[in-house]
Amino acid sequence: MNAMATQFASQSTSVLPTADELDRALRDAAPAEIIAAALKTVGRDQLAVVSSFGTESAALLKVMADVDPAIPVIFLDTGWLFEETLAYRDTLIAKLGLRDVRSIKPLEEALKRDDPDQELWFSNPDACCRIRKVEPLARALKPFSAWINGRKRFQGGVRADIPVVEVDGGRLKFNPFANVSREEIKDIYARAKLPQHPLQASGFMSVGCMPCTSRTTEGEDERAGRWRGRAKTECGIHTMKTS
Ligand code: SF4
Predict the structure, then answer these.
(1) Which cofactor does it need (predicted)?
(2) Is 89 a pocket residue for ligand 1 (Cβ < 6 Å)?
(3) What is the CATH number of the domain that holds 83?
């Protein structure tokens, strides 16, 4: 544990540190230290991990499970996910002993009202992400004052500059893998013998919803297969308000 993280771990929880203070203290900390600090800051009742159970998700979930496998995990089941992703979720729950995975679906009334023909992903993908991801996440996060996610700076784009700790919609948001490299993620998979997402072997380097995910070719950015041919690069859970 680095010196700042050690100092943070030993301080009283009676006065909560700000996001900036946490970010400074945890800037060079390892993912497990950052998750432990999140737990210490707000307590398990107030902390959730958000995971897509995508191609690199097992690394974050493994580190989290080593810290505390009972931290609630929110999984957004949009209704457009691959069967393989749902199966992978169940495989990882069993393998890692995750005790509280919450599969959150969009509201039926929102689907009937805004996407009766199930074509919104094509005509207005931002609106589709809003009713299938952003609004369900906002509902799921209501009981929590902090959340953890798996974004990495090496993914580039708007992720290239993410801090380790920030504020999003009034909640603390921890990015414990912000500093982690691709090689370190591979190492976590190898050491823990974590299974790969079933679609990875057939060329899907980043997996989201079926209509908005395609294979990538050699040399392409790993997220190039998401919303291919469109300007959209993010679903909105990190860029739209979740409060
Ligand atoms: Fe809809 Fe595509 Fe967003 Fe999934 S990723 S919610 S299908 S627009």
Answers:
(1) [4Fe-4S] cluster
(2) no
(3) 3.40.50.620
Which residues, listed in sequence order, are joined to residue 146 by a DSSP beta bridge? 47, 172
Q: What is the mean pLDDT of residues 126-153?
A: 96
Whether 190 is covered by a domain: the verdict is: yes
- 97 within domain boundaries: yes
pLDDT of 125: 95
Q: Chain-centre distance of CA 64, in angstroms?
A: 12
Tell me the residue range of the domain where 207 lies. 16-212
Question: Domain count of the chain?
Answer: 1
Residue by residue, DSSP assigns 109-136 as HHHHHH-TTS-HHHH-HHHHHIIIIIHH
Q: What is the CA(229)–ligand 1 centre distance, in A?
A: 14
Does 235 qualify as catalytic in the annotation? yes
237 Cβ below 6 A of ligand 1: no
pLDDT in tens, 8-57: 555 544 567 899 999 999 999 999 999 999 999 999 999 999 999 999 99
Residue 132 to residue 46: CA distance in whole angstroms: 23
Does the beta carbon of 235 lie inside 6 Å of ligand 1?
yes
10 located within any domain: no
Structure token pair of residue 38: 């999140």
Residue 180 backbone zone (phi > 0: left; psi -120 to 50: alpha; other: beta): beta
Task: Give SS3 for 227.
Answer: coil
* Average pLDDT, integer, range 149-165: 93
**CA gap 81, 106 in Å, rounded:** 12
Is the residue at 177 inside a domain? Answer: yes
